[in-house]
Design a protein that fits this description.
There is one protein chain. With 110 residues, the protein is mostly helical. The chain is 60% helix and 0% strand.
Length: 110
């Protein structure tokens, strides 16, 4: 037997098992997909979060003691930051008797 033929046999023996495993895995995956299609099982349509009211992005810096108090208040009420800040602003506006003003129409570029 020639050296080239021996090398070829060694390579094929070395890769045959990995090719066999890959082929079996592919066949099993194809069978699983076919069984799923046969059942009519479809992944449920993913529904995203509903759009809420239009919000304005705002950034503020708080004193450390106010941040700690804010965290404690949110934890105590179980609110998220957005809900807590909105609720606090509404209570503040009510206390100051600030009326609800009409919201201007958004520009077409927005």
């Amino acid at each position: 037997m020639t050296t080239a033929k021996t090398t070829q046999l060694r390579r094929s023996a070395r890769t045959t098992t990995s090719r066999l495993h890959a082929r079996r895995a592919a066949e099993e995956a194809a069978a699983a997909r076919a069984a799923e299609r046969a059942k009519g099982a479809r992944r449920p349509r993913r529904v995203g979060r509903q759009r809420g009211p239009q919000r304005v992005q705002m950034s503020v810096r708080l004193l450390l003691e106010d941040d700690v108090r804010l965290d404690a208040a949110l934890e105590q009420t179980g609110m998220q930051l957005q809900d807590g800040v909105t609720e606090a602003l509404r209570l503040w506006f009510k206390k100051l008797k600030i009326p609800v003003l009409p919201v201007p129409e958004p520009s077409p570029r927005d």
